[in-house]
Design goal:
By secondary structure, the protein is an alpha+beta fold. The chain contains 17 helices and 15 strands. A hairpin with a 2-residue loop joins strand 3 and strand 4.
């Protein structure tokens, strides 16, 4: 019926065209279609409707649909080392993997397994994590709103470079006292600068020239750029202490157009606002817990922590050092209480135990009292955040339920594979040794080398450097001389 209807419409349209072809021609101006405004980009390509929508159906396995959102979310959530390529073959391979995953999951659900004690504990831990995350998403991230005026204000900050004077204090109490004296007028900035100016090296003490907004973390930069020339900033935490900042001059600096930076600025401010809302939730949660910090123990413990990840170098060579070691304490130190509340307490030993469960590169920096108390808050409030999420009904949220059920299914699939596959595989010593002999290179660590790079603009200049090295000159001295002349391409 549909084909006949289309044929009738086509015949009528053709007849109409034939009739109008004998009429007098009427000249009409073709309307110019305005270009479709580009609101979003996918990678570097403008989205003009050529991309599939998130709810587009890719396939169906049993009663479950596979849609574009599931494909994209699963692809970028997978481990990069084993993720297929982004070409057509890689996308097809990943879609096949999604189908296999659904087949295994639905089969495991029908097998009727009962969760063991360990599996139930793992599921409860995952459920707590999901509910905490949902509380953050629903009450923090989804509630954030950044005004256009705020975006333009920050854009103006990017267009300014400042000259600053810094005061450094190892303890917050010292910074608070000096700032209070400065605000009251009982201490001049010149006197405070002479006593507490930070040592910046190269003979400079506390003076920073031509600092750009993008050179600092956004949370610090916003506090400094909001200070008017001649005024004193709030107390600003640093990696090893606290700063007071005085702005001495503002100068314009070139930046890209506003439309090119707007999305980046908005994402940055959303992150800051989300962090502020998260802290507000934590403050409300603590208000009913009768929380008391032991500031003496917190300062004592924080003084023994060091940064686990440090960065050194310049544009030619940057070295990232990761310290895997945690500070060592005697049993009396580990039993020191950092914070108490109505239903419990948190000791230094508890904090170290949680830190040891994290990889060194993901451990937070706890070398100041503020940072250590923030981390203690996060550990203390974990059960309370789950309770608040349940009070708000987030355990009934469809997204939360789906994430928890996905974890349950993953546990059941693991059990099914172990029962049906791994229990029937036996690896003898002979097989293990044969595999090692054939893959011995995979178990060897690569050798490390320390080398110097000396750059010269001409062949003759490079030959002169080689001649000097052949005669016994130290390459370290040559690189140091290059550095003093401003040649940043040479380095070790």
């Amino acid at each position: 019926m549909r084909l006949r209807l289309v044929g009738a419409v086509s015949s009528a349209l053709l007849l109409a065209l034939c009739v109008t072809s004998h009429a007098a021609p009427v000249r009409t101006r073709k309307p110019v279609k305005a270009p479709t405004p580009v609101r979003n980009y996918v990678g570097n390509a403008p989205d003009r409707g050529q991309f599939l929508p998130d709810n587009a159906l890719l396939g169906r396995v049993g009663s479950r649909d596979l849609r574009v959102f599931d494909f994209r979310d699963g692809y970028f959530a997978s481990t990069p080392e084993v993720r297929p390529g982004q070409d057509s073959l890689g996308r097809f391979q990943f879609l096949q993997n999604m189908v296999k995953k659904e087949v295994l999951g639905q089969t495991a659900l029908k097998a009727g397994y009962t969760l063991t004690f360990e599996e139930r504990a793992a599921l409860r831990e995952h459920e707590a994590s999901v509910l905490s995350n949902m509380l953050y998403i629903r009450t923090v991230r989804d509630s954030s709103n950044i005004s256009e005026d705020s975006l333009r204000t920050v854009y103006q900050y990017y267009a300014q470079q400042l000259k600053l004077q810094l005061l450094y204090f190892p303890k917050r109490e010292q910074a608070e006292l000096v700032r209070l004296q400065l605000l009251r007028g009982t201490l001049t900035w010149a006197r405070a600068f002479a006593l507490h100016a930070a040592d910046l090296g190269n003979g400079r003490r506390g003076d920073v020239d031509s600092l750009r907004f993008a050179a600092l973390p956004i949370d610090l930069a916003l506090q400094i750029w909001a200070v008017q020339p001649g005024k004193v900033s709030p107390i600003i935490p640093s990696t090893a202490g606290y700063h007071l900042v005085r702005v001495t001059d503002r100068r314009p600096t070139p930046v890209p157009e506003y439309h090119a930076m707007r999305s980046v600025i908005r994402l940055t401010l959303l992150g800051l606002e989300s962090d502020a809302r998260r802290r507000a939730i934590q403050t409300r949660a603590k208000s009913t817990m009768a929380v008391v910090y032991d500031s003496t123990n917190v300062r004592w413990a924080a003084s023994r922590f060091v940064q686990s990840v440090t960065t050194q170098g310049h544009s030619l060579s940057t070295t990232i050092s990761v310290d895997e070691n945690l500070p060592e304490f005697e049993s009396a130190g580990l039993s020191r209480v950092l914070v108490r509340w109505r239903d419990g307490k948190l000791t230094l030993g508890n904090v170290l135990q949680r830190l040891s469960d994290l990889s060194p590169i993901s451990r937070p920096n706890l070398n100041t009292a503020d940072r250590l108390m923030d981390y203690a808050d996060a550990l203390m409030l974990e059960p309370r955040m789950v309770q608040i999420a349940k009070e708000r009904g987030l355990d009934k949220d469809s997204t939360a339920i789906a994430l928890i059920e996905r974890k349950r299914e993953e546990i059941l699939v693991t059990r099914m594979v172990e029962d049906s596959v791994f229990k029937h595989i036996q690896i003898t010593d002979a097989v293990r040794q044969k595999y090692y002999r054939e893959h011995v290179r995979d178990y060897l660590s690569p050798s490390l080398a320390r080398f110097a790079l000396v750059v010269r603009p001409t062949r003759a200049a490079a030959d002169s450097v080689k001649l000097a090295l052949d005669r016994g000159a130290r390459v370290q001295a040559i690189v140091a001389a290059d550095s003093l002349r401003g040649e940043v391409r040479s380095g070790i």
